[in-house]
């Protein structure tokens, strides 16, 4: 892999610098053998021995094999550290309260959700959930129970629509990283063509992605340039999308300056061709814009820790729905006997959540589990809310779990 540094191309492994929240996704670049200089989400040097050891194991000689995956506590379908489970994939039209309905179906069928990831974009929703049988703590093998689950979930996902293509449900036991799978599902669903619901408040002009595709005549590449707001996993999202669109990245130039990121990718199609038609260039731009936006959920997030049990996700999402909140993105995981969840929420109309609703949630949810309300510091509305006096001091998820386990 070649990296441009100070305007010169170096065809040897050189440092890339970017923020990192989940080191597992670096396995994507294992075959390229680059050298990464990484920091945590706070921009600090990584000194924790366990984290360093984990990175070495994942990126080591056996890190890309099935055996290596078994020991990695990341978000993969089929990881043994989560126990035996069945992976459920859902994609369809989003609406307020949909996640609550999905989790209620699973709870009524006595399935426990151990891990889940939910993304919404352009009125579409994609979910990957790992469930196990409450009585056996193993995967669901009964074809009749699976058939009942699938039929009920399809009914929920279809809603008032009669077209079967509106929603899709499937079961799997593969080895695909959840985030990568969600990108693949939404790309196949053509969410990049949907009528966007993004507002100027969420994406001010200075942070909107600016993507161009040009031809490098000298080297015979197409050059994709991306300039946008910097964040963790930005490089992962872009490279995953280019790969899933059957493009090969030959060289890259990655840099950041404060809150901004600038990335260049020199690509060709798998057959060696460059992007010559305007239609193909336009499709790449749209797909990359969608990939960048899918993970972004500025504003309010709710972080919760509680003892894991069947129906916990259903209970929490029901409370969110009854308080008029819509889940825009969610992450659910299980650490031992503890459930660790985060929900990015808005009101039913897509507007920021008001202070009264937050206080009502604290009173209702805070009685049985630890709740932390966190606002994206990059959001202007978040800064205004913090200065108004009602926003609480935020802390990282690891601290929340440590407090709960204590």
Automatic annotation (TrEMBL):
<keyword id="KW-0677">Repeat</keyword>
<feature type="domain" description="ACT">
    <location>
        <begin position="87"/>
        <end position="171"/>
    </location>
</feature>
<dbReference type="InterPro" id="IPR002912">
    <property type="entry name" value="ACT_dom"/>
</dbReference>
<dbReference type="InterPro" id="IPR045865">
    <property type="entry name" value="ACT-like_dom_sf"/>
</dbReference>
<dbReference type="GO" id="GO:0016597">
    <property type="term" value="F:amino acid binding"/>
</dbReference>
<dbReference type="InterPro" id="IPR040217">
    <property type="entry name" value="ACR1-12"/>
</dbReference>
<feature type="domain" description="ACT">
    <location>
        <begin position="301"/>
        <end position="378"/>
    </location>
</feature>
<protein>
    <recommendedName>
        <fullName>ACT domain-containing protein ACR</fullName>
    </recommendedName>
</protein>
<dbReference type="Pfam" id="PF01842">
    <property type="entry name" value="ACT"/>
</dbReference>
<comment type="function">
    <text>Binds amino acids.</text>
</comment>
